[in-house]
Amino acid sequence: MVTIAEGVEFDTIAREWRCKWSGDNEKASLVAAEKAIEAVLSKVKAVDGVKGVQRVVCGGCLDFKIITSLPADKFGAWEGDQFAPEEEFLTTLKAIDGITEVETQTYTLMPM
């Protein structure tokens, strides 16, 4: 268990890949984003220590997010590997017509 401050601990670190998609052309950019993650999903799941991979889609704010979580003690190795296949996935997302605001974020997770 890692302590950030008194009473604030965590055991899991997550990496989020996110973007905005467009409702144009029958949500073609969302369909393409789903195909993009499916193309690298086996690589993500093969990262040593992966606890889970989740997809979040919001139809109201048009968010598409992939959240990969690892135990805190395994996360540094993935970070050292530049979160592979992050670059491959983000490059594909950026090339999709209708995809905007491609971003990443790292944060901690802890069941409450």
Salient structural properties:
single chain, 112 residues, alpha+beta, 4-stranded antiparallel beta sheet, two-stranded antiparallel ribbon, 3 helices, 6 strands, globular
Report on the architecture of this protein.
With 112 residues, this protein is α+β, with helices and mostly antiparallel strands. 36% of the residues lie in helices and 38% in strands. The protein has a four-stranded antiparallel β-sheet with strand order 4-5-3-6. A two-stranded antiparallel ribbon has the order 1-2. A hairpin with a 2-residue loop joins β1 and β2. α1 runs antiparallel to α3. The longest helix has 22 residues. It is globular and about 50 Å long.
Following the backbone from N to C, one meets helices and strands in this order, namely: EEEHEEHHE
Averaged pLDDT, please?
A: 97
What portion of residues is helical? Answer: 25-40%
Low-confidence stretches: none
The CA-CA distance between the termini, in Å, is 14 Å
Strand content: 35-45%
Strands ordered across the widest β-sheet: 4-5-3-6
Name the structural class. alpha+beta
Question: Helix count, per DSSP?
Answer: 3
Rg (CA only): 15 Å
- Shape from CA axes? globular
Total beta strands: 6
Would you summarize the structure shown here?
36% of the residues lie in helices and 38% in strands.
Outline the secondary-structure elements.
Layout: E1 2-5, E2 8-10, E3 12-20, H1 24-45, E4 52-58, E5 63-71, H2 72-80, H3 86-94, E6 100-109
